[in-house]
Amino acid sequence: MKTTICFRLNGEEMEIAVEPNLTLLDMLRERLHITSPKKSCDEGDCGACTVLLNGKAVNSCLVLALSVNGQEVMTLEGLGNAQNLHPLQKHFYEMGGSQCGYCTPGMIMAAKAFLDENPNPTEEEVKEGLSGNLCRCTGYIKPIKATLAAAKEINEGK
Amino acid sequence: MGTIMVEDKIAVTEKYKLGNKYHVLGKSVPKKDVLNKVLGKSKFGADYYADNMVHCKLTRSKHSYAILRSIDASKALAYPGVVTVLTYENVPGLNRQGELIKDEPVLVRIGEKIRKKGDPIACVVAETAKIAEEAAKLITYEADELQPILTVEDALAPDADMIYDNDHNYFIKRVVVHGDVDEAFKKCDIIVENDYKTQIQEHAYIEPEGGFAVYDGEVLTIYACSQNVHLDALDLAENLEIPMNKLRVVQSTTGGGFGGKLDLTVQPYIALAAMKTGRPAKMVFDRKESMKYSVKRHPFDIHVKTGADKTGKIIAFDCLVYGDSGAYASLGPATLTRTATQSAGPYEIDNVRAITYAVTTNNPQAGAMRGFGVPQMAFAVEQNLTELAEKVGIDPIQLRKNNAYQVGSVTPTGQVLQSGVGITKTLEAIEKEGPKYIAPKKEASKPYKKRGVGVASMWYGIGNTGFPNPSGAFVEVLMDGTVHVKIGAADIGQGSDTTMCQIVAEVLGVPYQDVRITSADTGLTPDGGASSASRQTYVSGNACRLAAESVKQSIIRAASVLLDADPDDVGTENYCYFAKSNPEKKVTIKDCACKCHHMGIVPLGHGYYNPPTTLLNMKDGQGIPYGCYAYATQMAEIEVDMRTGHIDVLQIVAAHDVGTAVNPINIEAQIQGGCTMGLGLGLMEEIVIENGEVVTPSFASYMIPTALDVPIYHSIIIEEPDINGPFGAKGVGEPSLIPTAAAIANALYDATGVRIKRLPLTPENVLAELKKAGKAL
To answer: What global pTM score does this model have?
Structure first.
C-alpha cells in the first residue's frame, strides 16, 4: 500500500506516493533519479548516501521515505552549481579532495552539516566529522584539508 | 631535476610550482574529471536509467566444487514481473571469460564443474531490481558435490583431485634464476631465513560493480565500470558472438578499481539481457555480492632467505612463494610472474632464485590488486633485510644504500638498468628529511606504550610483465584552436585524463584548459590497454606525446606558411607560434588550424607506444620485463599499546621516485591514498574465508581505514627521469602502497623487539606475539 508524502527537496516542494519499506535513498535514486546520493553498503556503514534531513547529515539508506513527510531534504544537487560552487565544492575541486568521486557527494554533504554545526573546527574535529564517510582513494588528507579551507573561506565571507 | 618536499599543510596549487622549463607539465592543475564529481553529476554505472529498462540478478552456486546436473527456473519464470531467465543456453559464444586464460563460465553449463561458491547458475531479468532479487532466490539447481580443495597444501598434495583437466593444481609456476644461488650461500657470513604469511585483501572500492546496456538491433552499447574497455570488448565479443565493431564498450565513471575492475563483472549479463529482451538492461551488485565474489589480493606463503658477507653486501637471495589464486586464473598468473621478477627488491644481488606458484583451489579467485604481488614480498623481504642489518651491525638505511641499484646494475632477469634509477635518492631523502619529522629516539606518549621507527623500500616495474602492452592516442586540433584528445585509457580516479591533457598541452604549446579528453570508449577511442600496472602515465602518456607531436607537424607547416619562415625555424612560446629568426611576428594555434584547412590538411595526429620489453624465458625468467621502474622508501613511526597490541601509526614519510612529476598534487594524492591502503593491509584488513565462503562481506566485518586512522603523511617527490618515459615520467599508483605494511612491521620490531611475520598486525595478532615473547603488559 502506498502513502502520499510531501516534503521539500533542495528547496522544491515534492509530492510522491511511497511504499512503507522504501528507503529515502531508493526514493531519491530510483523514483526521482536524484543520483548524487550513492548506494554502496546499504546498511549505514559507509556514508556514501549522506544527505541532509532538516540540516542534519543522515545515511539516507537508513531513513524510511515515509518519515520525511513534511521535512526538508537536501542533496548535493542543491548545494551549488558550476557557476556558483559552494566553498566545499570549490576546495574539494582545487585541492584534490576527490579521486574516483563515488564517496564525494556524501563526504561533501557530511562536511556541510559538520561545518554548519562547527564553523571553526580544528583538524582533529574535521577528522571526527568525516569519520562516518569511507573513502578508498584519497587517504582522507585532502578532503580534510579542503574542509578546513572551506571553513576558512565561509568564515571570511561572513 | 630536483627533489620536491611536499608539505602536509593546506595545499595551494601555486605551492607545487617546480620552476622547470615546462609551461603545464609539473603544475598542479585541477583534475579534468573532478568538477562533475563535486557537483554530483558524474554518471556511474548505477546512475543510468531508462523508462523501459530491465534489471538483472544472478542466482549463484551454493557449492564450492560440484558438477552441475540440472537447473529449475520454472518458479522464477512464473513470478510476476519476471521477463526472462538466462542460463548457459542463452550464451551464444564461448561461455568462457578471463583476462589471461578463458576459464571462467559466464553461466555454468549442465555437466560442467562449479569451481567456487557463487559461480553464476542463472540470471533473472525482471521489471524491477526487487523482483529480480526475489525471483533469483526461487531458482534451484542439482549438482553432484565434489570434495572442495580449500588450502594450498591440499591443492599441491600428490593425490589431489585436479580442479582443471591438468596434471597439477596451479595456473602458473614461474622461475627466475640469476647466478648460482646454492654456491653463493656457502660464501655468506650472515644468513637470514624466515617464513612469512599474508592475508587476503579486498579492493573495497566504494562503488559496487554496476552497468547498463542498450541494444539497437545492430550495435550493443555497454556503459559499465571498467579498467580496460577494449579487453572487455574482446572478452564480450567472444562470449556474445558478435563482432567487436558492433560492440561499443564505454567506461562509466568508475568508483575506484585498484585492479578489481579489470575482470568482467556485470557486463556479460546486461549484454545478454539487452539482446534477448530488446530493452535497456541494468545490473548493480550489492555490497555483499561485491565483497564475496569479486577478485582479491592473493594471500601468500613466503619462504625467503637472504645472505650477505660481513660488511652487509648481499650476495644471495632465495624465495619460494605460494599464492592461493582460487578457482579461476583471472590475473593470478601475471601477478605471480611479477612477484618472481621483483621479489628481491631494488638491490643488486648477483645470485637470485625466485620460484612462485599461482595455486588453483576452490576459494574465491585472486587477481590483480594494487601492487600485483609485490606488497606481500616487500613485507617479507624488507623485514629480512632489516634483520640482516641488525646482524651485520649497520643502520638499515645504510644497508639498503650499500646494495641499491645504480645505472648499469643488472637485475635478476638479466636486464641492465639504463636510466631513471632513483632508489638511492629515495633512501637519502628519508635519511635526511625523515628525522626532521620523526625523531630517531623518543619516549612513547604513555608508559604502557612503546614507540618505534621502521623503514622499507621498493621498486616497481611500470607496465605489464614481459608482454607487449601498447596504448594508442588520437589528437585533433579544431578550427577554433581547441584540442580534443581521444585515448583508450580508463581514468578510474587516479587522474590519467588530467595527465594526458597536460602532456598534450605541453607538446602543442596550448593552455591546459583548451584541451579536452574523451577516454575509454571503444566506439570512439583507440585501444589504451589496462589502467593497471601503474602504466598509463608512461604508456598512454607516450602515445599522447607521439600523437601530439604528429599533429604539431601539421600546425608547424601551417605556421611556416603564415610566418613565411622555414618549418625548422618555427618555435612556440606563450601559447603562440613564431619564427625564431623574426620573433616579433606571432600566430596562434587557431590561425594555424584554420590555415591547415585552407591548405587541405586535417590537423589530426595519432600515435601509439609499446614499452621496449621482451618475453621472459619460462625456464629461468631471463629477459626485459619492463621499460622503466619506479622506486620508493617509506619511514613509519608507530606506538604500540603493550596491554592490547593496538598499533597507532603516527607519521609516515614517503619518498617516491616517479620520474618527471607531471602533476605534483595528484602524485601526492596517490601517495596518501596508497599509504592508507597499505596501512589497511598492514593493520586491519582481512577477508576471512570459511569453507570457501567469504564471511566478512561488509564494511562492518571488513575494516578499511577511516579518517580517524590516517597518520600525518610527509610526501617527498623525487624526480629521476627515465629515458623511456614521456618527458621522463614513470608512475606512482601502486608503488605508494607497496612498502607501507613492511615499514610498519619494521617499526613494530623497533618498538618491541618482536618480529611479526604474519599480516595483518591486528591487536589480537600483535598481543598474541607479545605474550609469546613475554613482553605484553
So the answer is: 0.97
